[in-house]
Amino acid sequence: MNDVVELPVVVVTDDAFGTRVRWYANVDEAQQPWLEHPLMVDAHGVITHLALHRVPPAVLAVANAAFETLRTDPGANLSHLATHRRVNELHSATELEPIGGGS
């Protein structure tokens, strides 16, 4: 049985607290900020609301590397990780648009 959850939607945001990277299972989930995000990284660490064995190993490796970057530079530009961006950065509950080849 494979309990790994795919997390193909990645949104990178910058605010007064620094850069945050969030992984989601789909766009609909990412557009509902009241839901707990499956995986999030900021300068304080890697936070998951999934059992650790359910996070894809490649995603966890990227999340850990992002944390190491943000630990030394909380405002680091990690936009290269994003697959989607918020249409309106002022509102967290907005629609997303794909970046480049993202879907």
By secondary-structure content and strand pairing, the structural class works out as alpha+beta
Helix content: 10-25%
Contiguous uncertain segments of 5+ residues: none
Range of strand content: 25-35%
> Which H/E pattern describes the elements?
EEHEEHEE
> What gyration radius follows from the Cα positions, in whole Å?
13 Å
Average pLDDT taken over every residue: 87
Major sheet details: 4 strands, antiparallel
- What is the count of distinct domains? 1
Kindly state the number of beta strands: 6
Distance N terminus to C terminus? 27 Å
So how many helices? 2
Describe the strand arrangement of the main beta sheet, using strand numbers: 1-2-3-4
The coarse silhouette is: globular
Which key terms come to mind for this protein?
globular, two-stranded antiparallel sheet, single chain, alpha+beta, 2 helices, 103 residues, 27% strand
Report on this structure.
With 103 residues, the protein is α+β, with helices and mostly antiparallel strands. It has one domain. The protein contains two helices and six strands; from the N terminus they run E-E-H-E-E-H-E-E. A hairpin with a 2-residue loop joins strand 1 and strand 2. The longest helix has 16 residues, at 57-72. The mean pLDDT is 87.
